[in-house]
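Predict fold of Long-chain fatty acid--CoA ligase; 574 aa.
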Amino acid sequence: MEINRLFDVLFYQLEQSPLERALSDRKPNGWVHYSTADLVKSVNSLSAGLLNYGIQKQDRVAIASYNCSEWVIADNAISQIGGVNVPLYPNASADDYRYILDHSETKLVFCGDREILARVEEAIADMTYPPRVVTFSEEVSGDKSWKSLMLDYDDYESVIVKRRAQTLPMEMATIIYTSGTTGRPKGVMLSHRNILANCDSLTRSYILPQAGERLVSFLPLCHIFERTSTYHYMRHGIEIYFVNDLDNLGDYIREVKPQYFNTVPRMLEKVYEKLIAAGNALTGIKKKLFFWAVGLAEKHEPYGKQSLSYSIQLKLADKLIYSKWRIALGGNIKYIISGAAALQPRLVRIFWAAKIYVMEAYGLTEASPGISLSYPEKGLVVPGCVGRVIDGVEVKFDEDGEILVRGENVMMGYYKNPEETAKVLHGEWLRTGDVGELTNGLLRITDRKKEIFKTSGGKYIAPQKIENLMKAASGIEQILVLGEGRKFPSALIVPNEAFLKTHADIDLQSQEEAMQRDIEVFNDRLAQYEKIKKIRIVQENWDVENGLLTPTMKMKRKKILSRYNELIESMYDE
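Predicted 3D structure, encoded as tokens:
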């Protein structure tokens, strides 16, 4: 059968590679599994209930939930009757829920648990036409349980079959409200074809996964990166295991032993930090061997020329050290795809040296999301690059270096926002807002166009480039480079645990002086006008909970600058 609409993916799996463990959820008492046949039955039953409730073609239905099989069931049930899925972050505020549900005119909301249910109910309390709200929680019964919507498919089969036939590839399938680093979120309208075009590109461009292999899914399904990947892996008969307890993610990865998972750079940085912490806990010769292996890995160039001596050392390091790192990730990892932000080139070298193949991806919600991907082939994995442009996608550069994208994956536009749509869609070309370049066929992102700033001396500064360089300093957990209209660039730095332990016996000013010394070696790699002249240490982490990171772990620069304005001024008052 052909896959032309999103719901076709599930039926394709049923026909081509039905699984006994198509989707699995980690519960307190172990794993709960859904077979492909189970999923189809539940999807059809829920679609019947949605029809009975009165959901019409192109009506909006929201899902505010952590990753779970029920999320996928609801998504397909909405999709196959021509509805539009509006995915919401499970940790969004009531204010965000209120805005999105009102703006999208959502008719019904699926909530992941009782806590999310309460937040959504708070959000809709003063709405003129509030949506119905149900939850996946087994602790809730009655008409607030999603099971209250389930009806006999046989009674609605003819209507559902008709709706499937009426649902066209170019029709809107979802509205994804971008988390954004400033202002109200914009609703990105994506059609069935937009997303499936990206899946087709992955299938043509990427070494295909094998039916029966396993994926651990922990990035939010409400984000297009994980969602498009889920359709792709389901299409190829991959077992998907959902995990939401990130504190114990490593344990579950070792339990499932997956071949694949998607992640973001911040999580890979944490993996590396845990490895280093484990190395620091060693003593004697074991500790020396560990950090010898780390130093060796830092020099690794994937597919680059290696001397005989280096190759021999690498094999020895693999036997003694790297093999243990792979076991810590389950022992079966083929590829890890990292997206949503830039990954330090140093970490790419280290993981590849250890045969933990991290493939960097680049994209954005407006492109469904994939634009480029590193490939496990000679010459196509270069630290600092995000791979080659995937098949079916075209890239060109504006005069100022901004990346423009064209392809079937490019969005329909922003929902109810023609002004913003006109700013980014120019004919068939999408303005990404990112600045980059092609080098030997590989795409390199140099910065966000909106984040580049000018000093009072008229010099343009690309902060991401400097931040990614400085992150290689041993003491830095997080860093934000600033200096718009100022005499020189400076930085706010969140130190890591190792730095704080080492310098626990000195005051804050002395810690800042020590940090400044640590970054001088990296300052030497920058032009004079780019060098970080002053820094201030921040004594709290930037995270989603305190509103300083987006759900995809990108810095909310304006909020950070506002929060630490007094600290920033102290760097320029001296």
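The longest strand covers residues 429-439.
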